[in-house]
Amino acid sequence: MDIQDILGEKIFASIEEMNDFVKQVMDEQNNAGLEEFQGLNSEQMFNFLYHPFEAKQFVSFPEHVDNVTDAPIMQLFIMLVEAIGETGLKATAKGNLPQKFCRESALRYWGERRYERNTRFGGINKEEDFSDMHVMRINAMKAKIIGLNKGKFVIKPKYRKQVAAADYSTIYPQLFKTFATIYNWGFTDRYPEFCIIQQSFVFTLYLLEKYGKTERPNSFYEAFFIKAFPFEDDDCEGMSFIGEQDFKSCYISRSLKRFARFMGLAKVENMEFDNPISRNYKISKLPLLKNVVCFNH
């Protein structure tokens, strides 16, 4: 809308009065909820994208979160710190977790049936073969909760008391923030960068909070995401074989499977359990979501 449209036929006593009127109209427009952003206004979306942990007037992330032990990332973290104990866990020559620990923790994490299915084409011979543990370990080190000292994985002094007391209420928020803002979500896939997928993590949590009470197919969330952030060919320069469907699939993989599910915020179930390449999922929010993020409408 241009200035002439705003002014219409109105008559003003002064330039100052006209400027005040224009400012009022523009503020109203900026504060109006937008359909493509599911009712969020442009200022809210801007802050969600560029200042997610600073815009407390719109969204906040508590520094203490209880009841986090069911979250997959915390299940893995607990397995690791139990193995580290007080004496540390010896790292491989490359600085990775030992094979024996990875095999045993994978069996414990997946259970026998899933372990057999996930290893039927190759066993767990190195840390990277157990991708979830690999990702957790990287994040725990980026968050400076776990470190390497003289060839052993150790718990950093700042967190030893909490770990010894099985108090993970401040550890989870550190892992969450690290995963959301520092860790590269594209690290374990072959999609283009698609930076907006990670950058819009708060919008994804907003969608889950708003619609996640009811179990819905992944296509439901894909449609909202693509409406807010339309696919652009420029994101895939030199990759003409990549299209909008790949963008949608990447969104579900990174935002919902490898972020919201991994953090224990959403239930993401494959509709075809025996078909690991299936892209059909049913998604719903989990109780932990409301404790991790608070939207101030």
What does this protein structure show overall?
The chain is mostly helical. The chain has 14 helices and eight strands. The chain folds into three domains: 1-31; 34-61 and 192-297, no CATH class; 66-184. The chain has helices at residues 3-7, 15-31, 42-50, 72-84, 99-110, 112-118, 131-142, 157-164, 171-181, 195-199, 201-211, 218-228, 244-261, 289-292, and strands at residues 59-60, 89-90, 146-149, 152-155, 216-217, 266-270, 281-285, 294-295. The model has no long low-confidence stretch (mean pLDDT 88). It has a three-stranded antiparallel β-sheet with strand order 2-4-3.
Strand content: 5-15%
The sequence of SSEs as H and E is HHHEHEHHHEEHHHHEHHEEHE
Give average pLDDT, whole number.
88
Give a quick account of the main beta sheet: strands, pairing sense, barrel closure: 3 strands, antiparallel
The strand order across the widest sheet is 2-4-3
Oligomer: single chain
Low-confidence stretches: none
Tell the overall outline. Answer: globular
Query: Taking Cα atoms only, what radius of gyration do you get, to the nearest Å?
Result: 23 Å
Summarize the entry for a quick read.
The chain has 297 residues and is mainly α. It has 14 helices and 8 strands.
Describe the protein's topology.
Blueprint: H1 3-7, H2 15-31, H3 42-50, E1 59-60, H4 72-84, E2 89-90, H5 99-110, H6 112-118, H7 131-142, E3 146-149, E4 152-155, H8 157-164, H9 171-181, H10 195-199, H11 201-211, E5 216-217, H12 218-228, H13 244-261, E6 266-270, E7 281-285, H14 289-292, E8 294-295
Antiparallel strand pairs: 1-8, 2-4, 3-4, 5-7, 6-7
Helix pairs in contact: 4-7, 5-6, 12-13
